[in-house]
């Protein structure tokens, strides 16, 4: 049995055609196409206003970024970093706040993101975190299991045997 492949745009066109034929109600259309009635109303409204182009997917990206750092501020952070290559974002922001207190400067983490975007800072090397004593504990347990040590051995003998390995 072959599966019928359709894209979302074709299904929207088909649904609009079914609506325009007048044979189906909104409830029937929503059951047939497995979408909400609210979505069908939205598509029909867009189709009536814009035609077929109104059925195309729209961008979901925000139109503006109200909390974005102003371009001039970012440029000032970058230029300060270029003058003082060894400084990190904390010191750059502290210097700017000290020398230009009349302006609002972002926090150090935002300055760090700006500098990272420009490729002016390097990430720190990740430290490997291991739980302490796992190797020693497992080797002591191996010795006990193998019969080399017994539970009656005192602590000094256990520690000496671990140090030997």
Radius of gyration: 34 Å
Largest sheet, if any?
Answer: none
Instruction: Count structural domains.
Output: 3
Span from first to last CA? 67 Å
* Helix content bin: 55-70%
Series of H and E elements: HHHHHHHH
Give the number of DSSP strands: 0
Give a brief description.
This protein is mostly helical and 165 residues long. It is built from eight helices and no strands.
What does this structure look like?
This protein is mainly α and 165 residues long. The chain folds into three domains: 8-55; 71-117; 139-164, no CATH class. The protein contains eight helices and no strands. The protein has helices spanning 8-21, 26-33, 37-50, 71-83, 89-99, 108-117, 134-146, 155-164. Helix 5 (89-99) packs across helix 6 (108-117). The two termini are 67 Å apart.
Task: Outline the secondary-structure elements.
Elements: H1 8-21, H2 26-33, H3 37-50, H4 71-83, H5 89-99, H6 108-117, H7 134-146, H8 155-164
Helix pairs in contact: 5-6
Provide tags for this entry.
165 residues, mainly alpha, 3 domains, 8 helices, flat
């Amino acid at each position: 049995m072959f599966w019928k492949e359709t894209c979302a745009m074709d299904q929207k066109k088909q649904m609009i055609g079914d609506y325009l034929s007048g044979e189906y109600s909104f409830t029937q259309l929503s059951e047939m196409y497995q979408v909400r009635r609210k979505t069908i109303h939205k598509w029909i409204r867009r189709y009536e206003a814009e035609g077929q182009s109104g059925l195309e997917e729209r961008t979901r990206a925000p139109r503006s970024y109200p909390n974005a750092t102003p371009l001039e501020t970012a440029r000032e952070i970058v230029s300060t970093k270029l003058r003082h290559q060894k400084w990190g974002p904390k010191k750059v922001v502290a210097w700017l706040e000290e020398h230009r207190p009349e302006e609002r400067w972002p926090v150090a983490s935002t300055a760090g993101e700006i500098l990272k975007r420009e490729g002016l800072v390097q990430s720190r090397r990740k430290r490997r975190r291991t739980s302490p004593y796992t190797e020693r504990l497992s080797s002591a347990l191996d010795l006990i299991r193998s019969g080399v040590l017994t539970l009656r051995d005192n602590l000094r003998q256990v520690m000496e045997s671990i140090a030997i390995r």
